[in-house]
Amino acid sequence: MKFTKTQLKNIIKEELEKLSEYVGDMGGMTSGLGSMGRATPQNPEDELDSQVQSRAMTFLMDLGLDDKVSQVFVNNIAIPDLQTVMDAVPKIDTAAEEDLA
């Protein structure tokens, strides 16, 4: 069976999408391997969802929430909202709190 270049590209693209969904379902367990040798993105909006979720999990647990509660928050709060919480909470009781309104 022969494939054209375009067909082969489409097959590869579909398989990568399937793999991406599968890895996403695992909670991003392989995300650390994929980032080895690369600089950490400076802009949180450029991070993969699993990286933001991992940071949020650590952040929430550092606030004193147990890991089950933190996991529920991380799995059920939209990524932009997780980022907002991680940015806003440290500003509570500071002059920067005025910016939250």
Task: Briefly summarize what is shown.
The chain is built from 5 helices and no strands. With 101 residues, it is mainly alpha-helical.
Structural account:
With 101 residues, the chain is an all-alpha fold. It folds into two domains: 1-36; 44-101, no CATH class. Helices cover 58% and strands 0% of the residues. The chain is built from five helices and no strands. Helix 3 runs antiparallel to helix 4. The protein is elongated. The model has no long low-confidence stretch (mean pLDDT 74).
List low-pLDDT spans.
Answer: none
Distance between the termini: 62 Å
What is the string of helix and strand elements?
A: HHHHH
Number of domains: 2
Helix amount, in percent?
55-70%
Number of E-type strands: 0
- Derived from helix and strand composition plus strand pairing, the structural class reads mainly alpha
Q: Please, what is the average pLDDT?
A: 74
Number of helices: 5
Biggest sheet features: none
| Beta strand % | under 5%
From the alpha-carbon coordinates, what is the Rg to the nearest angstrom? 18 Å
Q: Tell me, what's the shape?
A: elongated
Notable traits:
101 residues, mainly alpha, 5 helices, 58% helix, elongated
